[in-house]
Amino acid sequence: MSEIMIENLCKTFGSKDGRVDALKEVSLTIGDGDIYGIIGMSGAGKSTLVRCMNFLERPTGGRVLIGGRPLGSLSERELRRQRERIGMIFQHFNLLMQKTVLENVCFPLYIQGKRKKEARKRAAELLELVGLEERRKAYPSQLSGGQKQRVAIARALASDPEILLCDEATSALDPQTTSSILELLKDINKRFGITIVVITHQMAVVREICTHVAVMKGGQVEEEGKVEDIFAHPRSAAARELIRSDRGGDMQERYGRPEEEIRSGRRIRVVFSENSAFEPVIANMILAFREPVNILRADTKNIGGVAKGEMILEFAPGSINIEAMKTYMSHRGLEAEEVKEDVEQ
Ligand SMILES: Nc1ncnc2c1ncn2[C@@H]1O[C@H](COP(=O)(O)OP(=O)(O)OP(=O)(O)O)[C@@H](O)[C@H]1O
């Protein structure tokens, strides 16, 4: 069992400039086998939270339970054992530059006391899993960023972890390499049932692989739930802002308009899971109400493998048909919600 329960977690750092409350009463549950995203802007407390999950950082209040066992009650030896069951990967890979790819993956196996032959055999299997068996003799400096992260993933898997913590693991990679690393993580989750926690500031990463997400701001969880629900109905300003800044989608070039062109008039955000049905509904609505509607942005996004369409519509200033048009859309399966001023620049 690798369920992670976080209860009222607090972390306060003391410094010469005063106190910093990096985590304020954070509570969440990460289910066994989930791919769980923790998203927020810089300074939100994400790294502190993930470091508290394996007690690399000791919380100042609250509890962390893994598989029902509170980490705070473990002896140092038990804690070391528990940490072996938690792999970690980082933005800057943290590889040993003087060692070959194979030796990098062998490293945690040597620490566990494995013999050289056994460790090399296991490391070779893991390199095959991440698609790098042919680069086993290379040094990290000879690899691309994506390949380095694959080595780091193989190394993290060497101790057969139940949990993999990924701290901004794709932030240093280009979008295409990011997608291939996310695919690899998804595959690992599916094949081995490893619970994966993804720390990121990019909504695109969350929607590509995560099942659940917690949105953090100022050391607190602003919103938490299934990715598709939060994408469709973001409740907090922090979630709306992250969704708004999530660019990338194949329809955008066709419809995309620079945001400077956004004028007055009420705006709504429409979400639908089959984007092909957008156009007839909107076109028929314009015909039915005989009123112009401005498409400010249209986009498709891949949320956990399902294509979701998103559109920002602007109604004519002073229109009296807005509520009727929202009802028209909702009767045709389009989820519509008002876009508040605080999410537009
Ligand atoms: N060791 C430390 N000593 C003092 N303050 C710290 C320490 N570590 C983190 N903080 C502070 O705690 C807050 C949360 O930092 P944290 O690194 O967890 O945020 P984050 O969401 O991961 O942001 P980033 O993506 O920029 O790392 C910040 O105000 C940070 O300055």
UniProtKB/TrEMBL annotation:
It comes from the Bacteria. This is Methionine ABC transporter ATP-binding protein. Pfam families: ABC_tran, NIL. The keyword Cell membrane applies. PROSITE patterns: ABC_TRANSPORTER_1, ABC_TRANSPORTER_2. PANTHER family: AMINO ACID IMPORT ATP-BINDING PROTEIN, METHIONINE IMPORT ATP-BINDING PROTEIN METN. GO terms for cellular component: plasma membrane. Belongs to the ABC transporter superfamily. GO terms for biological process: amino acid transport. Keywords: Amino-acid transport, ATP-binding, Cell membrane, Membrane, Nucleotide-binding, Translocase, Transport. GO terms for molecular function: ATP binding; ATP hydrolysis activity. Residues 4-243 form the ABC transporter domain. InterPro entries: AAA+_ATPase (IPR003593), ABC_transporter-like_ATP-bd (IPR003439), ABC_transporter-like_CS (IPR017871), ACT-like_dom_sf (IPR045865), MetN_ABC (IPR041701), MetN_ABC_transporter-like (IPR050086), NIL_domain (IPR018449), P-loop_NTPase (IPR027417).
